[in-house]
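Hi C.,

You asked whether I'd gotten around to modeling the 121-residue construct. I have! Everything is below, sequence then structure, no commentary in between.
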Amino acid sequence: MKALHFILIILFISQYKADRVILTCDDMTNPDKNSDCYYLPIEIEYYKCCYVKTIFYFDGNFVNTTRCSSIKRETYDHISKITESSKGYINSRGALIESFVFDCLSNYLSMPLLSLIIFLL
């Protein structure tokens, strides 16, 4: 009978832990590393969740922000142009950019590279 009580307590605790709210990509604030953003759930109309980190100086103030941002497929296809325009916008406001990272999980290179290695063996 004690074993049954113990199992029930464990089940209630696991159910309590499972009821936590799962963050979506845009709800995640201050991720520690880029992989914290990669597998977060996103809304249906978006394509990927990306890690965005900006470090710059503006009016003598040091600004360091990290966030997760969900992007659409069109944005992902032109990511290099988007990052350059974002850097240009920050510079046009008079800020001095120290670092700007817009990192999405891109494993589109891993399969062809792996295939090439296997082919060469």
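If it helps when you're writing up: The CA atoms of residues 34 and 51 lie 5 Å apart.

Thanks,
B.
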